[in-house]
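Possible race condition, two jobs.
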Amino acid sequence: ARRAEELGVAADLPLVRELLRVCITAGRREPLARTMAMAEDHGVQLSEVGDLAMRAHLAVVPSAIEQGGERQQLEPQQRNHRRHDDFHCANDGSASLDAAFAVYTRGRAEAWVLSSWSLRRLLILCACHDRLGEAGTVLDDMSECGVEPGFEALNHVMKASHRAGEIDAETLALWLAGSEEEARAGYQPPNDDDPAHDEDEPSPEDRAGRWS
């Protein structure tokens, strides 16, 4: 994005799309902020790249799932050394999630078509960061739009609810056991590998009507 600005390249829709794809791979906030600002400055309609913008913002949110797994593998002394880094990482993750949710809120207001993958990923990250209010909003919207959250996302919501004291350990254990049983019975959640080819996506007109 910076190089394009230096060269005076016009930020048209194809360029913004390509830059957002790079941002998704890089997972860094600064290039994403430049790309979003460039799109706004050059009049690119973000509704045309709404899902890419959403996915790019989600990519810069540090995943509590992965970080938690790494901490569990460290020795106690190493975990103590990581506390300072974890504090800054948590703050950065919270700020990044704020930005991602702001994009999501704008998308709702402007009736962007967001893939079910993006909605599920946002739901998981909200739950992992104990943002139950935001998670509830996303879950309600998914229900209204006919997007199935899947057990992975719901498991994280239930775990966050337990951490918040909203459900007891027995209820959580029963839920997780039921989730595992469904998986063993052959339940297959919707394929999220390619957000561009989600078969359960509502049409733009349908989603605009539901979010209007």
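Job #2 (started ~2 s after job #1):
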Amino acid sequence: HNTNKNNKLSLLDDNISLGKRAPQDLFLWAVFLNRFELATYLCSKTWVCFKLLTPLFGAQIYRRAATLELDLDIKQQYEDHADQFDTHAMSIIDRCFDHDEHFAVDLLKRPAVAFNDVYPLKLARKATCKSFLASKCVQKYLDHQW
């Protein structure tokens, strides 16, 4: 039991009600156990702010697993899963962008509190999510940065 209340990664936090992180925890469990269909399903059942980050996390985890895997077939399977999560994240941000450009760009700029203040663009870059980074929304955001 980690007693440091300020540690964002503490395993047990008395201030968070049981089950509050269940969607994220189940999603990560499914990805780490290579239950891709379940992970994809859980990804679709999260809230808007999570819908963008969960596939990016999935892509990051599968890409990392691919670098560690020796079996070429499994390595390719992991890369394919990462690509599917990347494409899913791109479709989410582009749908948001088509509906409300300001909201979508704002999602890119804000850290996700539920995921320890991770920024979507930093995660996408780290996960090599080429489809997401090439999305209309990200390109519009980058155009305004210059």
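The two ends are 47 Å apart (CA to CA).
Logs attached separately.
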